[in-house]
Amino acid sequence: MRQINKVAVLGAGVMGAAIAAHLANAGLEVLLLDLVPDQAGTNRSVVAQRALAALLESKPAALYLPEYARYIETGNFEDDAQRIKECDWVIEVVVENLEVKKRLFQDVVVPNLSENALLSTNTSGLSVNALAQVLPASLRPRFMVTHFFNPPRYMRLMEMVPCAETDPETFKEMAGFLRRRLGKGVVFAKDTPNFIANRIGTYAGAATWRHMEETGLTIEEVDAVTGQAMARPKTATFALWDLVGIDTVVRVMDNSYKILDGDDERELFRVPESVRRMVADGLTGRKGKGGFFKRETVDGVSTKFFYDPTTGAYRQAASPKFPSVGAAKQVDDPAARVRTLIQGDDKGARLAWLTLRDTLIYTVKRIPEIADDVVNVDNAMRWGYNWELGPFELLDVIGVAAFVARAGYDGVAVPQLLNEVESFYRTEDGKRLFYSVTEREWREVPRSEGEISLSLLKSAGNVVEKNSAASLVDLGDGVFCLEFHSKMNTIGNDTLSMIQKGVRRTEQDGIGMVIANEGSLFSAGANLMLIAMAVAEGAWDDLNLTVRAFQRAMMAIKYAKVPVVAAPHALVMGGGCETCLHADAINAHAETYMGLVEIGVGLIPAGGGTKEMALRAIRLAEEQDADVMPFILKNYRNIAMAKVSTSAADLMRMGLMRPGDGISLALDRRIHDAKLKAIALSANYRPGRPATDLKAPGRSIAASIKTQLWNLEEGGFISAYDRYLASGIADVITGGDVPAGTMITEEHLLDLEREMFLKFCGQKKTLERIQHMLKKGRPLRN
């Protein structure tokens, strides 16, 4: 297998630097080169050096940890071109201009590339075959497009396009490397303008503009419809254009209009004059002085405005409400959400239908022009534009026959293919199949090496235990997976029951357990609504029993007779974090944002989270024969400041992950990697026992913390209630009102945190915090 350990990135603009950062995230050595600017003086690599410095300040962060910048060396094309010979892969990321790229290949790359190195271009739509013309015949088999989406760290999509002479085996090996090492979702595109995602995405935006004008809706009204209600991101249509840069959108549309002379919908790509005027006036979006949306301070209040294309002026946002959108947003399942939206009878529903209708018809007509199959198209839109459902998945959701009938009612012709198929996907015998448009037969959807699909395993009858909130799924080889599937994967009584049942079943029939799910987030934590109801009703005994059950479930995980490995991803809040902390090991997806955030709703981590942070600090101090105070303070701050990791790598620094835990950059390998870890741990597994020999940090450390809290309150940095809550957390994490060194047990710490939790629940301000979070989705400072 080809080894890639060092990569040269040619071009240190925003995209080139961000690609270099993600390569560094993956542990690769990177050489970042750019031009020598005029009047550079002695600092001839200043362009690349400034780009590297900017990475450390980028928002959102391009690097998992700031210290990963050390993996990146800087240089310039003139003095350091020969160093390209050291690299296994060279990525060109200069300006999107065919002649500029060709010149760089001829002058810098070809004379210096080693005979086995790969060469790729990061073009977003230029012809790979046109670029290959300037390369020697011996290099073309190692040349291809690797189109990263921006920002590279966060966007999963990688569009790959071979040139006519790219070696198929080399291309396949590179795809595997990009999936496995960089965590990319790879799609295979054709050498056509804008490839797949930008071709469809740009069309969808242009179609939305056309129907906005036809229906007389405003920019703000359109974005209210084309976001989450349509199973797309919150940025919807025009806020997305603001984010990307309206000038960039114009350039892509102009390029499409120029090149797509054979496209039957070419006119739709013609840039509206009002949009061109915006760019001329500097209204390019977030990076300019305004865009389709902007904020201004009015009477001391930050106020949102939106652009009116008919007048060229801004209007104050009014938060439009459509019954169809409101109904759709109440639905969790994206398929049912889209159906709910387009079945409405208001202007919002009409716009949604018209936009979807035209986009889906256009997409069907582009097969096999832009890709060989529907899977690549759907993956491109889900991974590149963050659509929850791809175009062909949407056709199945609406129903192909129903779609054809409704389009016919509108007087719109559909491609003949839609009259021939009932659906584009189906599941049989635990396999997901797709309809091959080119071969007119059903084929299995390709799966990446190491990919485990819980949904397919469940369809094949691998569920061994199940209730409304969680399931136990047989992964094979004696490993079971505990899967949460409640709303936002919150943890309630049914989840706790399944944890206990899952542990017992795995101890009986298996060798290890993985805790993972395929939701959009791992877990939002304990079910706040149930806590709020119990508090409002004064059901203190019930609440006490619930917290006790939570603690018992966590201890069941920690002291199971088989190894338990948690495989978190995305948001892992409160109780979700506690679940992971009690596992023997964690194998997290690289983009994991985890924290004990209970103080934000006026509570203390009481599912063993505070206990676990105290226990870990005490054990670390013992191992290093050191004072416990710095270890306790670090873990205390995680809780009192509701710290959330910025990446899985950050979890190591926070102490929420430990040496031996793992990180998977590839989201679809996360469960597989956790399974392997569980199997490895099972070989010589020794179950733990609840600790009975802990030396309490003691009241003196709690007093020191409380002095600092008093100073923070006096300085106006925290509220009086923040101080009250943080003081209570200090009392628990230090072992209670006892002298330092007093011997305590793990059970004692659990009792302390449960008692403090109930005490906090009895406070009016805590109930206010809980209710605010439930209503607004963000913490209240009271």
TrEMBL record:
3-hydroxyacyl-CoA dehydrogenase C-terminal domain mapped to chain residues: 195-294
Entry keyword set: Fatty acid metabolism, Lipid degradation, Lipid metabolism, NAD, Oxidoreductase, Signal
The UniProt record lists the keyword 4Fe-4S: no
Domain 3-hydroxyacyl-CoA dehydrogenase NAD binding: 6-191
Gene3D superfamilies reported in the protein's UniProt record: 1.10.1040.50, 2-enoyl-CoA Hydratase, Chain A, domain 1, NAD(P)-binding Rossmann-like Domain
Keyword Oxidoreductase attached: yes
A GO BP entry: fatty acid beta-oxidation
Signal peptide: 1-20
Catalysed reactions, as listed in the record: a (3S)-3-hydroxyacyl-CoA + NAD(+) = a 3-oxoacyl-CoA + NADH + H(+)
Pathway: Lipid metabolism; fatty acid beta-oxidation
GO molecular function: (3S)-3-hydroxyacyl-CoA dehydrogenase (NAD+) activity; NAD+ binding
Lineage top rank: taxon: Bacteria
UniProt-recorded name of the protein: 3-hydroxyacyl-CoA dehydrogenase/enoyl-CoA hydratase family protein
Species: Geomonas terrae
